[in-house]
Amino acid sequence: MSKPGLNTLKPGANYFAKELDSFVSSTDVVLLSTNDSQIFSDPERQYKVIHEFDGFFEHSSDDGEKYFREKKAYVVEKV
Prior knowledge:
This protein is mainly β and 79 residues long. The chain has one helix at 17-26; strands at residues 14-16, 30-33, 46-53, 56-59, 66-69, 73-78. The chain has one domain (14-78).
């Protein structure tokens, strides 16, 4: 399993919610979960990384334009 201080997640690997919590707190990433807002409610629940993206498009409410953000994004699902 992974160690504290993760700097990346691997697609196909499982992680405890507490590991994902630490990862998100220390890394500039986006984490999308199929478990809605309950991802951190049980620190021992495991999640599998389904997809990894190098970036995403984001709509700016300031100017109405869409911009590509080069920022890691991961999709995880409850195991």
